[in-house]
Design brief:
With 253 residues, the chain is mainly alpha-helical. Helix content is 60%, strand content 4%. It has helices spanning 2-7, 16-39, 55-62, 75-91, 100-111, 113-119, 126-151, 160-165, 167-178, 184-193, 196-199, 222-225, 228-244; strands spanning 68-72, 155-159.
Length: 253
């Protein structure tokens, strides 16, 4: 696409980056509007992972009038989730990013969650955990700076942990932020549709299935799966952001 834009008689005298941004905007409008017309609703949105430190900035370049909800989760729980998801991918014969050591630990956990604890082992190879902490600190740390600076009142944050503790209150707040209906029955419907019990097809929150994408549905699971070295490694790489976001009160653990 860039090559055509740079060579075409229609566009070669303009800024290729500007043309590409405009075309991405047109494509986004096309797909979102198509979905909106099917649903009969008033607002449509896109849910996407925070793929890099510049991601919020990229959204702003294409959709500066967007309303952005940044869902933040304790990076240590995110690291635990990563290990389980990668272990599931490996079990299904799909591409994964675990070392043989981590695969063995993942398999041990599947056999018995207590097995690793009894052996005094964590689930992580230090290199993997250190990289996960670095990535979390970089991506989330940049997003909480760029979001308010670029979008102003069009940016808000919500903690995964708060969604678990106070789902109705948080959903009502977020619907209000989006400028849509916040009546109690709608809030309750949204919460029920996204409940762990519904998504896991009947399991209660906290009842674990290591093979499921919806594994356990709780916060703070890292406390039971990090060994002392894991805690030190994560603190070294992302301790400041954990404190800033309130996941740790001070330098202690």
């Amino acid at each position: 696409l860039r090559l055509w834009i740079e060579r075409s008689v229609w566009s070669r005298d303009g800024d290729p980056d500007e043309h590409i941004r405009d075309l991405v905007r047109l494509a986004t409008d096309y797909f979102l509007t198509e979905e909106l017309s099917k649903s009969g609703k008033k607002v449509v949105g896109d849910k996407t992972p925070l793929l890099g430190p510049k991601f919020v900035e990229e959204i702003y370049e294409i959709y500066p009038e967007a309303r952005v909800i940044h869902i933040i989760r304790d990076g240590r729980d995110q690291a635990v989730s990563f290990i389980h998801q990668q272990g599931n991918r490996a079990k299904r014969g799909r591409t994964h990013r675990l070392s043989p050591e981590e695969l063995a630990r993942s398999e041990a956990y599947r056999r018995s969650p207590r097995e690793l604890a009894e052996r005094g082992e964590g689930m992580f190879a230090e290199k993997t955990l250190r990289k996960a902490a670095q990535n979390w600190a970089l991506r989330v740390g940049q997003a909480i700076e760029d979001g308010p600076a670029l979008f102003g009142d069009g940016y808000t944050e919500v903690r995964y942990e708060d969604l678990l503790k106070h789902p109705n209150e948080e959903v009502e707040r977020l619907l209000g932020f989006l400028g849509v209906d916040t009546e109690e029955t709608l809030v309750e419907h949204c919460v029920n549709q996204a409940s762990f019990e519904k998504l896991s097809r009947g399991r209660e929150r906290g009842k674990e299935d290591p093979t499921s994408f919806y594994r356990k549905g709780v916060a703070g699971d890292w406390k039971y799966l990090f060994d002392e070295r894991d805690k030190e490694v994560y603190k070294e790489e992302a301790g400041e952001l954990l404190i800033r976001l309130g996941y740790e009160k001070d330098g202690g653990w």
